[in-house]
Amino acid sequence: MHAKKLDKLVTGILYTIAGIIIAILALLLLFILVRGIPSIDWHFLTGSSSSYEAGGGIGIQLYNSFFLLVVTLIISIPLSMGAGIYLSEYARKGRLTDFIRTCIEILSSLPSVVVGLFGYLIFVVQFQYGFSIISGALALTVFNLPQMTRNIEDSLRNVHHTQREAGLALGISRWETVIHVVIPEALPGIVTGIVLASGRIFGEAAALIYTAGQSAPALDWGNWNPLSTTSPISIFRQAETLAVHIWKVNSEGTIPDATKVSEGSAAVLLIFILIFNLSARYIGKKLHAKLTSAA
Questions:
Q1: Where is the ABC transmembrane type-1 domain (predicted)?
Q2: Average pLDDT over residues 255-260
């Protein structure tokens, strides 16, 4: 009886702690949304930002955030897939593999501001890319690659060994087994990890302050030359993202409605991050259900 009472007491304490944490997070989300949603309208979402006048929008910053996200994923996904497949399917146990995994753990724990300073020294200064989208995307790749690699490796490792044995028993090569059997089976976890990483990339600020820049030049939507600094598809132009814009508005405060812009921008950023996280769960469940029914 004493053990049962102790178990109930400990369980109640754990539920209470979990409830307090959830309540704090819920109140924080509600506070940001309640303060920011009244400031959101079509003009705010599509209009250009203003440095000294009230009534500016976040159109360019919002576009820059999505464009930078796409460029980063184009670089990150092939690298993380290759590294995850190697570590899961081909790497033998030994000092080299342990060293690689240790490096991944260290890189995944680095503060984003450190990655930003690294990106500034290497990509902005050394490679002479300047403050640009490509510099920001490469810095975010360094920042996000360890987590994506670990997620893909874990997803591949969760595929039961009988799936691999079945592929090899049919006479196909190890590489074909990985491509046609293991990866499709691990796809729900891989896609979920990529979508969650997208939310992390979308909301990043510290690493981009030193790499992508703190200004958002006007874009010429009729200019599709990728080498032009005014082209929407150029990766060599400065690109202030939405997260950096929030930091800049709060730190400089040169516009009369800085509080309104900051609150509205924070609410938009939070809404998109929530969409990324919720869609990750939805897509993962749908893919898992589809693959299960097909099997």
A1: 62-280
A2: 84
